[in-house]
Amino acid sequence: MPGFEFFGEEERKEVNDVLETGILMRYGFDGPRKGIWKSKELEAAICKTFGTGYAQLTSSGTAALTTAMAALGIGVGDEVIMPAFTFVASFEAVLSMGAVPVLVDIDETLTLDPKAVKAAITPKTKCIMPVHMCGSMADLDALKTICDEHQIILLEDACQSIGGTYKGKHLGTIGHAGTFSFDFVKTITCGEGGVVMTNDQNVYTKCDAFTDHGHDHLGVDRGADLHPFLGYNFRISELHAAVGLAQIRKLNTFLAIQRKHNQILRSYMEQVPGISFRVVPDPSGDSASFLSWFLPSQAHTEKAIEALKAAGIFAGNFYWFANNWHYIKKWDHLKNVQSLYALNDAQQNALKKLQTIEFKASDSIMSRCVSTAISLVWTEEQVHAKGAQFLKVLKEALS
Ligand SMILES: *Cc1c(COP(=O)(O)O)cnc(C)c1O
């Protein structure tokens, strides 16, 4: 799954280009940088690779989400509908804008259930944010229909699904805006980094300035820039962008390996009685960074996990239901409003309400779900051996 498994000569070369000039910042210093513009180059490569009109790099995926929301005008008084299974960054970004995260149930796509989304819409709903979890995608047609009907923004958190597609278009390029994360464990990495993608020039222009203290980047030098609105510093550094530039060139290799390994593993798992798989709305577009599978009940799942652990082969598998970062069940800091600074009243009320809301549909899916991370460095033989071992252990445990 992660690009860090393929770190090598290519990354070192790109980083060294930057070290040769010593210009670690992405803006300015036109003379001394001697034509080295890694961030600009990576943005152009992102546009070309993923088929998006505009790309704005950021210092992280969280910063990318925050920037996208700012550029889309999401703020105090607005509600953002998001799934109960995601990464904490999704609600962090919403809260940092002053908006209210409205968490709703998922379905077997492992992200937003369109029916749950519909039921959660209020006059305050400004944005629907599907999170394309674990390499695969949301039911985007259904969500787009809801957005169009209610004139709501569609913001795709595609941080975990770099390279995945839906009906021929890259995830992250289908909504009004979309984001990737390039943190250390993502499909391509910069060490830390992220990007906002959009086809709307106006949204892009706002992202460009917002991530750099509101600089309009129209002056002849930074000092001559105007500041049409407030911004922050969410800039990526040239060193990080350099790593990403080497990584994006390897993306097709990563995807081909992931898809091959995923398919082999699945062929073994399919032979385990009672196992089913995550619903993938466009199977040909699965980035295949994970194989997510279900057992018939929570008890079966716990038993299977025990058996895999006992056999020493659970590493690289994730039972999100019991995980602190990814599922509502363990987000006590969110439900108890443990914020270092005062949140607004609407936010506080919404978060406290989470203490009493039940997510039965999500619980019944997540308590039966295990995701197996697909490594890029396994050999084909190793994948077969792993598959055979899984098949044997799971069959025994579940019989
Ligand atoms: C990784 C991730 C992010 C943001 O990640 P950063 O670590 O801030 O780059 C956002 N959403 C999801 C679903 C993620 O997995």
What does this structure look like?
This protein has helices at residues 9-21, 38-50, 61-71, 89-96, 114-120, 140-150, 201-210, 238-248, 251-269, 298-310, 332-335, 345-353, 360-366, 380-398, and strands spanning 54-58, 79-83, 100-104, 125-128, 153-157, 165-166, 169-170, 177-181, 194-198, 276-277, 290-294, 317-318, 369-373. Helix 1 (9-21) runs antiparallel to helix 8 (238-248), helix 2 runs parallel beside helix 8 and helix 3 (61-71) crosses helix 7. The model has no long low-confidence stretch (mean pLDDT 97). It folds into two domains: 3-251, Aspartate Aminotransferase, domain 2 (3-Layer(aba) Sandwich), CATH 3.40.640.10; 255-398, Alpha-Beta Complex (Aspartate Aminotransferase, domain 1), CATH 3.90.1150.10. It is α/β, with parallel strands linked by helices. The strands form three sheets. It has a seven-stranded mixed sheet, sandwiched between helices. Strands 10-11-13-12 form a four-stranded antiparallel sheet. The longest helix is centred in the middle third of the chain and has 19 residues, at 251-269. The chain contains 14 helices and 13 strands. Helix content is 39%, strand content 13%. The radius of gyration is 21 Å and the shape is globular. The structure holds pyridoxal-5'-phosphate. The site of pyridoxal-5'-phosphate has 14 residues, from helix 3 and helix 4.
